[in-house]
Sequence to fold (577 residues):
Amino acid sequence: MLDAFVALFLVLHFRKTLKVKAPGSYWFRMFNSTAYAIVILLVLQEVLRISSITMWIWHVLVLLLIIVLLRNPEFKNDRSIALAVLPLVLISFLQDILKVWPNKFADKLANYLDYAFPFAIIWLVTLWIIFRRQQKALEKERKIREEEEREARIVAARKTELEILVNERTAEITRQKEELQHALDDLKATQAQLIQSEKMASLGELTAGIAHEIQNPLNFVNNFSDVSGELLEEMKAELEKGDYNEAIAIAEEVKQNLDKILFHGKRADAIVKGMLQHSRTSSGQKEPTDINALCDEYLRLSYHGLRAKDKTFNAKFETDFDQSLGVIRIIPQDIGRVILNLINNAFYAVNARQKQHVPGYEPTVIIKTSNATATGNRGNIVEIRVIDNGTGIPQSVRDKIFQPFFTTKPTGEGTGLGLSLSYDIVNKGHNGELLLESKEGEGTTFIIKLPAD
Amino acid sequence: MKILVVDDEKDMQLLFEQRFRKEIRNGITEFAFANSGEEALGYLQRHNHEAVLILSDINMPGMSGLELLQEIKTRYENPPPIVMMITAYGDPDNYNQAMRLGADDFLTKPIDFNQLKEKLKITN
Fold:
């Protein structure tokens, strides 16, 4: 009977263990069926009173179970249970054998077995306790491992999540980069367009000035040639009269007139050429240029251009030219644009200050050239100063003034490229320097320094 | 008749002296020249009412011809000298402004001296 319960206990125990570890495995199904078989057999045994037969079945079953547990590597951890029940099972088995097969040793042996029985029990309990402890330790370890696995799974999930996120972000960034690249390309194209329109804008100002300005030299060309015709008629008359002295005097006048005609003809030519050069894209060719003449030409163009645009505009302008400068090698249309730009700005500044109606204020723009070699510069330096007594430039503006698209003028009035282009022309194109000195409320001086050799 | 010519173009003097050489020789006209509006006002102050006719450019550094015109017409009242504007900038804006300020005539450069002489005879 004992063996039946031991068998049932073993079978149920392993069935339970396997249910967690390996449900559906061969051994689980095996133990499952065995458990039902044991229960059925127990019931039959009690109903039919056949324990004398079934007890052998129990013995065999228990021994078989123990053998399975001990031999099979799958139950390595549970071998101690088998070992724990083994003495008890053996004792019970031997007792039953002795009962059915009595001999002269049997009583003696049965006595020994009776004595051994408590030890077997103690053995069972001890091993059982040890086994439970081991199981608990194993369980704990298993739980830790499970926890670790769970964490690992979470980490892996996070990792996948993050990877997806990173991929999304990367795609987003790539898309943004492409958009930015596109925007940059657009901006570059717009900048090129703006540079062109800045040129055309100042050309427009120039054209307005030139169309009228050209009438001044033409006035002299037309009238001096016309009057010279009259003078020649008079000279002829004097010659016929025989008044040679008067004739010579008239001839002198005619000669003087021809000089004037030539001078003003050239002046008209220079005005037109200046406009054409301005509109032409820079040839990048440096030519020997008379700086003073260039400054004078653009000062007049700027002044008359502004006057043509704004009738109320008025300012005094003065020139202070160093006549010893001679010619230096520059790209005249480029430096001309710089000078024009600086002078336009100067006139704008004095005009702005005049609108503040300061009593006794006289708007004045001075353009001054000098040889700056003596003042501590490397090599030969020619300096052009555009000086105005306008509103002045605050420090905050001064820092940004050469930046492209920076302008203090109302929208539509300035492209913000004038000074930026001027800076490039002087610093990059001519290896020179474009500087400014300014005091708020007193005026501004722009200084162009150009190497002269 | 005394005529004051105001123009920042210095060759204007030579041109007028040649164009009017007969009139000058015959003492019909006498010329004075000023290179700026300021100079012209100074001349008028020094030679009160000597110039009966003023021919003035408009675009000049400093005081413009229009400012000079306004100054003359408000300051010299009884009778104000005749002021004719002569300019390279013959656009309608300039013309209207000159007329509004009381200009007696408006000529454009290049100057047509025959036309000018005719006008001077009319004003005579």
The helical segments of chain B are 11-19, 21-25, 37-46, 65-75, 92-100, 113-123. The longest helix of chain B spans residues 65-75. DSSP finds six helices and five strands in chain B.
